[in-house]
Design goal:
The chain is mainly α. It has 2 helices and 2 strands. About 60% of the residues lie in helices and about 10% in strands.
């Protein structure tokens, strides 16, 4: 899981996946290139899932106090 500040965000990963799918649809693609693209796509899917999971955890940390004020508790891991 990549936490680097310059790591691609969800939108960038989805664009990369779309590009990979377009390239995989070509008829002139060699097997090795197809395998490389597939592996790259799987890596993007995993990272996109991780980004979504971290976002879900942040949303779940929203709390409501007795006065009805909503607060976001800091993530437990940092």
């Amino acid at each position: 899981m990549s936490d680097a500040p310059d790591a691609p965000g969800l939108e960038a990963r989805l664009q990369q996946l779309e590009s990979i799918v377009d390239r995989l649809d070509r008829d002139d693609l060699e097997l090795q290139e197809a395998l490389d693209l597939f592996e790259e796509g799987v890596a993007h899917v995993r990272e996109a899932f991780n980004l979504l999971e971290r976002s879900r955890l942040r949303v779940e940390q929203l709390t409501v106090d007795v006065d009805g004020n909503v607060a976001l508790e800091p993530p437990a891991d940092g």
